[in-house]
Structure formats: C-alpha cells, structure tokens
Known about the structure:
Elements: H1 3-12, H2 21-29, E1 34-37, H3 44-54, E2 58-62, H4 66-78, E3 83-86, H5 92-103, E4 109-112, H6 121-128, E5 131-136, H7 156-163, E6 167-171, H8 176-187, E7 193-196, E8 204-205, E9 208-210, H9 214-223, E10 230-233, H10 237-249, E11 254-257, H11 263-275, E12 280-283, E13 298-301, H12 308-315, E14 325-331, H13 333-345, H14 350-367, H15 373-380, H16 392-395, E15 400-402, H17 404-416, H18 423-430, H19 436-440, H20 457-469, E16 473-476, E17 482-485, H21 490-493, E18 500-502, H22 524-541, H23 545-548, H24 551-560, H25 565-569, H26 576-595, H27 599-602, H28 608-622, H29 638-647, H30 652-659, H31 661-678
Parallel strand pairs: 1-6, 1-7, 2-4, 2-5, 3-4, 5-6, 8-14, 9-14, 10-12, 10-13, 11-12, 13-14
Antiparallel strand pairs: 15-18, 16-17
Helix pairs in contact: 1-3, 2-3, 13-14, 14-15, 17-18, 18-20, 22-24, 22-26, 28-29, 28-31, 30-31
The structure holds adenosine-5'-diphosphate and zinc ion.
The site of adenosine-5'-diphosphate has 17 residues, from helix 3.
Amino acid sequence: xxxxxxxxxxxxxxxxxxxxxxxxxxxxxxxxxxxxxxxxxxxxxxxxxxxxxxxxxxxxxxxxxxxxxxxxxxxxxxxxxxxxxxxxxxxxxxxxxxxxxxxxxxxxxxxxxxxxxxxxxxxxxxxxxxxxxxxxxxxxxxxxxxxxxxxxxxxxxxxxxxxxxxxxxxxxxxxxxxxxxxxxxxxxxxxxxxxxxxxxxxxxxxxxxxxxxxxxxxxxxxxxxxxxxxxxxxxxxxxxxxxxxxxxxxxxxxxxxxxxxxxxxxxxxxxxxxxxxxxxxxxxxxxxxxxxxxxxxxxxxxxxxxxxxxxxxxxxxxxxxxxxxxxxxxxxxxxxxxxxxxxxxxxxxxxxxxxxxxxxxxxxxxxxxxxxxxxxxxxxxxxxxxxxxxxxxxxxxxxxxxxxxxxxxxxxxxxxxxxxxxxxxxxxxxxxxxxxxxxxxxxxxxxxxxxxxxxxxxxxxxxxxxxxxxxxxxxxxxxxxxxxxxxxxxxxxxxxxxxxxxxxxxxxxxxxxxxxxxxxxxxxxxxxxxxxxxxxxxxxxxxxxxxxxxxxxxxxxxxxxxxxxxxxxxxxxxxxxxxxxxxxxxxxxxxxxxxxxxxxxxxxxxxxxxxxxxxxxxxxxxxxxxxxxxxxxxxxxxxxxxxxxxxxxxxxxxxxxxxxxxxxxxxxxxxxxxxxxxx
Length: 679
Ligand code: ADP
Ligand code: ZN
C-alpha cells in the first residue's frame, strides 16, 4: 500500500480520499508549490496534514483564526499526531511546551496566527526548528480587495523566501481576481501547481421560499430539526435577538450572535456552539469564518443573503462531515429593496457597484429558478450539472406560466405613473382597487386601471417580486423604493421578447414533512446512544464532541454495527489512536443495543413475523400518545406484540382478545392496517 493511503487509514481512519484530495496530497508531499481551491467541507486540512506526516521536518500552518487552530490541534492530537499552536490565546505553559517540543524536533505540525510573523524573531526561530513546508489556510485573506483581508498575510511571501521551502495555499474562494492575487503575493508571481475542485456539495439539501409569515416559517423549519445544531442567518442585529428569544420560547437551545456583542460574549457563543450538541445560533454574517464545526445539520436564512457567493459560503457551513444537511432561504420584495439600496448607497466605485448588482441578480435568479437549484447554482460557478434530486425544485417542480402579458401590464402601470410608486400601489391600479391614494392621483382613470383581473393580489405580488428578481424593475433608493423599469425589460415591453414566471409561489407551503432522519428508524435509538457516549467522552476530555468522532462516523457505526475492534477499525473516521482510546467504549454501546432487543422479538428473528413485529412496534410508537398526541402514554408488552405478529388476528374482536379493550381501541385500526398490508 502507498504511504499516503496507509497514513490516511491508520492515522485519520479514512478508507478513501475525497475527490481531489489525493492529487493535492501527492503534489504537496513531493514538495511542489501548490494552490488548491476546494469547497468548504471538501477536506482541505487533510491535504497539508497528511503530507506533513510524509515529509521530513516541521510543517508550519498559517491560519487566521485562533479557535480554529485550537480545534485542529486537538483533532490532530486525538489522532496521535504531535501538533502545537502559537497563538495569543496560549497560556505561558502551553507556549513553553510548544517551544520545548520545537527544540527537541518532536513536532510535526505547528499552527500559527499570521500576526506572529510581525515579530522579527519568528522567521529565525522557524528556520532553527527545521521547517520543511509552509501551509496557508484561508489563503484568500491575502487579497486586499476581499472582505477577509489580513494585512499580516502579506508577510507570508517573505517568510517563504527566507526559509526557502515549498508552500501550499488553500482556499474556498475561487474567483479569478483573488486567485491571481494569491499567486502574486504568496508565490511572487511564479505560478504554483493549481488544483480547482468542483463546487458541488451534494449532501446539502437546497430550498428557497418566498416570505410568508417568515418568523413562523423559521420556527417550523427549526422545530422539525429540534436538537440538531443549526445556524439562522438574519439581516439585522436586532432580529438575531428577537428570533433567538422566539426559538428559546419554542423550547430550543438557542442564542444570538452579532458584531455588536462584546468580544468575550462572541467567543462564548462560538465555544458553546462547537462543544454542545444541539445549539442553534441566530446570527448576522459576523458569525462566519471561525465556524469550523463539521456537524452543523442545518442552515436557515431568515433574510436573503447579499450575493450568490455569500449564499454559497453561508449554506456551505452545513454538513462538512458529508452527512445529510438541510438549508432554507427566505426572500421577499423587502429583501431585494434592502440589498439594492445597500449596494447603491455603499461607497464602492461605480463598476464595483454594478458587479455587486450582478451578484445579487444571480442569487435572485437562483431564488426564482424554475429548474434544479443545484444545477442553477453550479452553472453560475461554471460547472455543468444534471438535476440533483436533492433540492426543493427537483422534489416539486414549480408550475410555470407565460407571464409576458402580465409583465407588460405591470411595466405599463409603472411607466404611466411616472415610475414613482412601489408594488403595492401598482397592484391596486392593476386589480382595479380604487383606494384613496389611487383616486387622489387620478390613477383610476388610467387605461391600465383594472386590466389585471387574471391574477389576484398574491399573484401580482409574485409577479412584481420576480420582476425585481429578474432585474426588470429596480427600487429607486432616491425615491423611497419606487420601482423603475430597467433596460432589460424593454424588449418585453416592446413585445420583442416573452417571459415565463413561476405561478403562485406565495401559496401556503405544503407542511413540510419532518426533517429527513439521518438513519433509519431501526438504527435511530442506537445512534442516540452513540451520541450520548460521545458527549460523555468529549466532556470528560474537554473537547468538542466531533473531535471524538464526527456524525458521519457514528451514523456508519449505527448502520453497520461492528461487533469487534477489527470491524470497528473498518468504519470511516476510526484511526488507530482513536480505536485504542475509544473503541471499547463504543463497542460496548453497540453490543448493548444488540442485547436490548427483547427476547420475544429475538425469537422471531429471520421470520416474516419478525418484520411484522417491527412494523407493529413502529405503528405503536406513532400512537403512543393517541392519534392527536395528547392522550396518556400507552403501549403493548413485547409478548403481546409478538403474539399479534405470530397469530395475525383478522378483526377488531380477535385483536381485543389478545390486547384487552383499552389497547385494542388505541392501536386496533393501525395494527389491522399493518396486518392487511403484510398479506
Ligand atoms: P474544509 O477545511 O475543506 O472545509 P475540513 O478539512 O475541515 O474541510 O474537512 C471537513 C470534514 O471532512 C472533517 O470532519 C474531516 O474529518 C472530513 N474528511 C476530510 N477528508 C476526509 C476523507 N478522505 N474521508 C472522510 N472524511 C474526510
Ligand atoms: Zn435539484
């Protein structure tokens, strides 16, 4: 077996590389200069951690966030790798221990904040320590035009020249300008080997909904995912507070996070989010780069993000471990107005502003898309894709209609009123509603008055929202959001182009079935037992739960139920060190679960009645508190269920003889259904 594969299996516990990882690992291990662009969750860290173990000497990792470095060091140590960090958050003892290890040549990985490079002594110290490779995480921080710019990143190029060692840079930001800047600043313009790995994150479910009682929409979405860690992004600080409060009242473990909070409070939230299992953080975009938690199961946007890039980055925080994750983005005309105004009133030069409008347009196009969201998103990033089967539009294609006439009427209403009014007033005109404002301005005499009978108010709202989304109409910031026609709309007005829109996206959403479960119903109890064990071990060790094992690993354990240490070693994410440290504890949980199967059920194993028993058990669980969930808990004994499964009573009376009146009344109809469909 090749060295890289062996380390991958023994140290990291993974059977296979993720797409793109292997080539990068090979190149970095061979000492090439590398720039790798991989999506969040693609597994960038491994691309320098693994080569660090293959190469002689120390690998120094420059990373912008202290919390993130500490977690990575903890994760590396848990895997048995000697790693340390030099950051301002270190205690004196920690720093001394790192220096000792450096002096003895015992460290494989040294994490360091870029600010450290400002100290003149550091390059010489690194040289003495025998650095053989520099890895730069979040390399886009070197870009002066990006929002994550960190001036000290500009010192990295100098360090590379000073040490004369190869450099590997990693980022998830891929636009050509940023890439060029990275090459110039980190590699002195000498092109490194570049790897560009696709943007798809197939495990993330994508969904958008027009706002329709947004608070309720967010609460419903969160309720279906209760107990799972998630992020709700909001447009304003005030909203993070009120929504967090509402979530707490609904029984969630939730807290707010925004840039106006004290630094210490912000760090507390970050630390809690990392360490706890089911915290919901309601945040502005300030909650971002430092979030490295791999098992975030959902991300909701209570307000529309500012661009398609921002959207991709924010939803991308979910499901880095590769297990299923879900997202929901809400949007409405107010969002569009707000985002346009922010761009127009911003300080950016005009060409930048029009680029920002284009990025917003791309996001709105995604929000109003008629076919697969993922394909639409990937197309924006220049990738071709088939319909994905894991988005709301693949699940339920929207009804489209030829909206050419409707849009022309709307444009005409806008133009005839001097482009001075918002959608509400224009809809009054189109639907022939003679409000005071309409009459006062004589708009009931316009030829467009009352010509829009083909759609109701909600229908017209959908049309206007989509017109704004397609950038056919823009709110004018100088005129309090009055809608102006854009050049893009002219061909439609002139009858030279047609347009198709989605119909009634404002109709009440079908009540979304409960969140998809991570494992089958049968494996769910074992998964929660494994999670409880993980929590206990993590708390005892003072590390976040995922440092012990991530969700993906626990899911595989619950499904495959390894019954020996050997079998456990075959689970993805279980390396040698973790096998030694935790293997026995988790095996005990798995074996315990095996035994928890009732003897009455075990006797039916491998027979049709066994399956029937399980179906009866599931039907019973649904009715444990009655069909409306409010009655006294009630259940049948295992031997009663086994008898029903084995004898298959044909009617209610026969069933009542086995179960008694009370139980037959609650469960009878459902059980008979199970028995009938089993025939
Ligand atoms: P990125 O920095 O690219 O966002 P990370 O390096 O944090 O991603 O990796 C995300 C998650 O994927 C981590 O939990 C990591 O353990 C896991 N991972 C990385 N490589 C593999 C692999 N080859 N097989 C399985 N899981 C992996
Ligand atoms: Zn799709």
